[in-house]
């Protein structure tokens, strides 16, 4: 669904000076909500006051960084009055040097929404017309082609955001309904006119953290879902391995008060029937990838509130430079474009998420190995009789899951420690926040691939366990998940290719089709 297709009765996200949530940005990104700029006269007057204050300063020959001076290290270069109006257009023009894959439609919508959120705070000296133009792009689903590579995260996401600035002015290209179209043509056909940027507006659009923040919002949403999905997979792995549910006892977890970890253990208690721990012959202590799963998943569960706070604070900040304090008639030069909080959150998130991949990879290794899976066939093959000799079950899938895990783990090196000195040593300490966010999304992608491999594995494992022990009791949660998986994955008996099912499961995962825990 495209945002332009939404009906008036569907969700709208209003942009003004009020606080937005990660979920607001994610809903716009996925086309589930429509961006709406507030009509409130007080809000619009506050925006206009900033632009008018800058106009007055210019008339009074005030010196304003990036308005009457060059940018960055060129701040000592004074711009002649007759050239001031051209400066913003030069800013986005010379920053048109991004490379790499283009941001996908969801990411691009999130970028537009994040930049609109920041500029709507009223401290950037921009006009209402600029905010309306960004809103118009979102409502018409005209998505600037934004290269993903070329930002060091301070002075903000200059190069990728230059592609937004250019499109607002009718330059470069957009994606419209999956096709690449010249921005000028797309604006005209949408009934929109190209902007002529006011003196500070090029800097206001580009000199901020919108790209890294947008990607962080999407990463948070995916990580939060993976926290729950990995827990459900762990429960099904425990059933497959005939595990000991006492490992998740409430009293046991009450003595180690990490709330997120305790929540994971409580979810596992919902999934594992109370009687599962009472049967005789169970191993006293399951291996760590089962017994310590709440401790592994719980790290991410406990970090998520901190990540949310950092991401939402950045989302709801004025993060360009200079800050325009129109009420007190001051121009404040600082460094709010610096993306350190997002960089730290993304570096931390990718570490915790990669640990989920590693956990699931270890669980799979136990389940497919007949030495450790407590009586199930090697590689969880469902074939019996003479043909069992030529069928190999999940042998290759385990190799692939291990490869995806290794790649995810390799990417956990923190990007934020690789600061570079750039732009004639003006930007001599930078955040690398956008690289950290891109790394985090790649780790999430790989971990999701491991997760769908595990979904095939635990679906097969629980099915086989039920065959070897018809009396095994499944909780309503597990029954519901098994029924959902059975619609997408047949039992694996005769060898078959699995990539079509893996790809379909990835679609379901990324659309968060499976309802997990309240």
UniProtKB/TrEMBL annotation:
**The entry's keywords:** Lyase
PANTHER family recorded for this chain?
A: HISTIDINE AMMONIA-LYASE
- Lyase in keyword set: yes
Enzyme Commission number(s) of this protein: 4.3.1.23
Per the record, the domain of life is Bacteria
GO terms of biological process kind: secondary metabolite biosynthetic process
What this protein catalyses is:
L-tyrosine = (E)-4-coumarate + NH4(+)
The record ties this protein, via Gene3D superfamilies, to: Fumarase/aspartase (Central domain) (1.20.200.10), Fumarase/aspartase (N-terminal domain) (1.10.275.10)
Protein name in the entry: tyrosine ammonia-lyase
* InterPro entries, per the entry: Aromatic_Lyase, Fumarase/histidase_N, L-Aspartase-like, Phe/His_NH3-lyase_AS
Question: What Pfam families does the annotation carry?
Answer: Lyase_aromatic (PF00221)
Question: What's one GO MF term for it?
Answer: tyrosine ammonia-lyase activity
**Coiled-coil intervals in this record?**
none
């Amino acid at each position: 669904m495209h945002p332009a297709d939404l009906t008036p009765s569907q969700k709208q996200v209003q942009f003004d000076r009020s606080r937005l949530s990660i979920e607001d940005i994610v809903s716009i990104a996925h086309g589930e909500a429509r961006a709406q700029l507030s009509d409130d006269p007080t809000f619009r007057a506050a925006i206009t006051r900033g632009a008018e204050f800058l106009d007055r300063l210019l008339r009074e020959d005030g010196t304003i960084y990036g308005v009457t001076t060059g940018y960055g290290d060129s701040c000592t270069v004074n711009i002649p009055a007759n050239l001031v109006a051209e400066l913003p257009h030069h800013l986005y023009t010379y920053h048109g040097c991004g490379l790499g894959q283009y941001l996908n439609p969801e990411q691009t919508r999130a970028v537009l929404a994040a930049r609109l959120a920041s500029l709507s705070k009223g401290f950037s000296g921009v006009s209402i017309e600029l905010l309306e133009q960004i809103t118009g792009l979102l409502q018409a689903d005209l998505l600037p082609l934004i290269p993903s590579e070329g930002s060091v995260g301070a002075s903000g996401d200059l190069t990728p955001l230059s592609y937004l600035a250019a499109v607002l002015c009718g330059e470069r290209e957009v994606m419209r309904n999956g096709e690449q179209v010249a921005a000028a043509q797309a604006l005209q056909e949408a009934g929109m006119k190209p902007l002529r940027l006011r003196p500070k507006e090029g800097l206001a659009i580009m000199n901020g953290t919108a790209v890294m923040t947008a990607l962080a919002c999407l990463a948070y949403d995916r990580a939060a879902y993976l926290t729950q999905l990995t827990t459900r997979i762990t429960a099904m792995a425990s059933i497959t391995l005939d595990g000991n549910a006492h490992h998740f006892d409430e009293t046991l977890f009450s003595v180690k008060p990490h709330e997120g970890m305790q929540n994971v253990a409580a979810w596992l208690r919902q999934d594992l029937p109370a009687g599962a721990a009472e049967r005789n012959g169970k191993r006293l202590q399951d291996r760590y990838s089962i017994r310590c799963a709440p401790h592994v998943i719980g790290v991410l569960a406990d970090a998520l509130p901190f990540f949310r706070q950092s991401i939402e604070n950045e989302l709801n900040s004025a993060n360009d430079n200079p800050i325009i304090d129109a009420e007190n008639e001051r121009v404040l030069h600082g460094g709010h474009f610096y993306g350190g909080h997002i960089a730290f959150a993304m570096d931390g998130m990718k570490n915790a998420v990669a640990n989920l991949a590693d956990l699931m990879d270890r669980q799979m290794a136990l389940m497919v190995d007949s030495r450790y899976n407590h009586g199930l066939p090697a590689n969880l093959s469902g074939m019996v009789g003479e043909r069992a000799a030529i069928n190999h079950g999940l042998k290759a899938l385990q190799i692939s899951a291990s490869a995806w895990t290794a790649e995810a783990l390799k990417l956990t090196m923190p990007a934020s420690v690789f600061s570079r000195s750039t732009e004639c040593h003006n930007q001599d300490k930078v955040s690398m926040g956008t690289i950290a966010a891109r790394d985090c999304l790649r780790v999430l992608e790989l971990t999701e691939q491991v997760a769908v491999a595990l979904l095939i594995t635990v679906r097969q494992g629980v099915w086989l366990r039920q065959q070897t022990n018809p009396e095994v009791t499944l909780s309503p949660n597990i029954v519901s998940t098994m029924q959902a998986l059975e619609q997408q994955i047949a039992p694996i008996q005769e060898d078959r290719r699995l990539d079509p099912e893996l790809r379909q499961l990835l679609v379901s995962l990324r659309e968060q089709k499976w309802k997990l825990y309240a």
